[in-house]
Amino acid sequence: MHPAEQALIDRDPALPGLALLLDDHALSAALAAQLPGLKTARVTYLRYKPQTHCLATLQLDYDDGGRHTLWAKALPAASHDWQWQSERLTKRARRGGISLALPASYLILASPEHDRRLKTALPPDAAILRYKPERRLVARLDEQLLRYTTASDYSATRHAIQIGAACGGAPLTACDDTQHLLQTAWLPGDTLSTPTSAELRQTGALLATLHRAPVPADLPPRGDENTALAQTLATIQTISPAHSARVRALIQRTADGLARTYSVPCHNHGDLSPDQTLREADGNLRLIDWDNTCLAAPESDLGTYLGKTHARTAIPVQALAAALLHDYNAPCDRAALYHYTAAALIRLLPEGFRQRRRDWPQHLERLLTSAEHLERIDNLNPPPLRSGGGIGAPHEKGECLFHGNPGWGCEKSRSDESHELHPANDPAYMQAALRAALAQPALILRDLTVLRHKAGRRALIAYTIENTDGVPQTILGKQRAKGVDKHGYRIQRALWQQGFDLPGVAVPETLAILPDARLWLQRQVAGEPATHQLTPDSPPALWLHIGAALASLHRANIASKRRWTIADELTLLHDRLEKAAALRPPLAARIRTLLPALDALGATLTDRPTCGIHRDCYPDQILISPLPCRAKPAAGEGWRGGAKNHEVPITLTWLDLDLYAHGDPALDCGNFLAHMTEHALRYYHDATALAAQEEALARQWLADSPLPTDAPTLAAWTTLALARHIYLSTQFPDREHTTAPLLALCEQRLGAC
């Protein structure tokens, strides 16, 4: 459980069941006694109203491989609603399905057929695809899609499906006015996850056709944007009060911006995202799921798609927009587009919490920052969109589109840090430099965004460029304040050129060094950090594959003059733990007592064989990317488990090799394992929550390591890294609760040595 969720529970004692719905482990334990054979219970969606109720969708997995979907509702203690609903479920239990009540937590649980607002009568062979209790359920039965709605939504949904069918959506094949059931044909194909540039362009062309088409009769208008934003603010005030002020200010700027824009309303899809786009066998795309089709400004549709795609992929909005609008041959106002995109991102702020993302506070922060950035862009009055050409038309002589408007897209451009970043944050300079470095004289710099900046140390800057083919791409610049990091560039370039001996392992392609800008360039790699997969239910096979990828990095063994010894590690550890002791006086004596024991442990690690090591190896330093979709992975690809390949083809990309040196490879693996343990403590309050995943990674790395290493050596390096995490826990507010548990864990491990 995340600390933010514990705080939420503490703020709402009226709902005792909330603690179970926010803790899958506790929920599984509570249900195991009533559901024989239950393996795990996991909340996949919830809707929370403080002091009133929390409604959730549950996925139950059983030891025999069976899977059931339930709804659950936490109700106020001793409320009349609790008495009535629990008694009602008891009576309905005679009809079959699951029906449970947990009186101690005032929690009721039941199968979808007992949903009081849906008349769900699922056929036995139907597979549930989406379920929001008391709102809608979607299931597949053979070649048909079944939609169960509430009585109040039934007519509007049927009308929307009929409109969508005329636009290429699935036709309505049957309906049941009694059950409020709508049946449509199942459309073959794959929904998109991370759309390519070509798919973005094709989506833009489809939207242009839709927006230019005659408006269907009785097309409902889109709901009021300000109302939706106000509801979002209310939710944020509940789940993350610390963000309330920023969200309130952002909503005001966005609402004011929308009030200044006007576009002729047109036919909108209404809820477009990559997974509402179907790739058919011939590669063509089709828009599906027209339940929310409406009359609205075209920028509303475009902004919704951009916001949802950015939330899913983390690709900069400007780069997405450049591709989406490339073949969008319809009018589009840039200011309106950015305001609607910001509005879409605001509406998505609570979705990580609702969908039970483990990293939802970080996800919320990222989306909020992106929306704030868009509003700053608009305030700088950027050049207008060109119809059918993407963001910003090239001037006749191809000069930089940022000319006369320095800093557009650069978060720090008007801050005191601007000079420190210069000239890497100067669009005019960087366009010329990129043209020369990449040998692309027609290159246009479309956007410049400072992704990270540690004052006086380093920065990461994204440059969105477009060449004559009109396809945008993002180049990352890694800047160092004291001068370009030639060592990191050389190591990464050597790894790129040499490659790895394990298929599906890579590093980003290096492109050029720009000494005057104190940075070097590499291609951006799509994917998500392995940290996002750090959950107790993530497949150990993935971590086997990562263990093998780490060993492959060690076997690459790029030559380096830098060395990192156990003496260096202990010197660093002494410095960090002394600082931790000063910051945590009640624990100071215990922290300092660790030092001699750590020195003794380090003495067992002298004279170890060395090879090239990452030296800053942890889950954020490896990206997981899907390979191009195909039926089965090629030989050597996929989640590796021993000698076998698994079903999901992926590429693992190593990042940030700035500290690469020759040292004991067990340091890398031990550091990676220590980060996993710290993650388990931070988010699950249990150091063993990821034990299966840690064991899988360690086992594979030990089997594949190019140098002889045993389990005790790996355990020693892991203990040293865990001790360093004691210091790290004092540097971040969200880690403060891990200091004492980490200290106790290190004491335990050192005592066992």
Global outline: globular
Give the assembly state of these chains.
single chain
What is the mean predicted local confidence, pLDDT? Answer: 87
End-to-end gap: 31 Å
Radius of gyration: 27 Å
- In helices, the fraction of residues equals 40-55%
CATH topology of the largest domain, anyone? Aminoglycoside 3'-phosphotransferase, Chain: A, domain 2
Can you walk me through this structure?
The protein has 753 residues and is of the alpha+beta class. It folds into five domains: 1-112, Phosphorylase Kinase, domain 1 (2-Layer Sandwich), CATH 3.30.200; 117-187, 2-Layer Sandwich (Phosphorylase Kinase, domain 1), CATH 3.30.200.20; 188-392, Aminoglycoside phosphotransferase (APH), C-terminal lobe (Aminoglycoside 3'-phosphotransferase, Chain: A, domain 2), CATH 3.90.1200.10; 394-482, no CATH class; 528-752, Aminoglycoside phosphotransferase (APH), C-terminal lobe (Aminoglycoside 3'-phosphotransferase, Chain: A, domain 2, Alpha-Beta Complex), CATH 3.90.1200. It contains 23 helices and 26 strands. The protein has a five-stranded antiparallel sheet. A hairpin with a 5-residue loop joins strand 13 and strand 14 (285-287). It is globular, with a radius of gyration of 27 Å. The two termini are 31 Å apart.
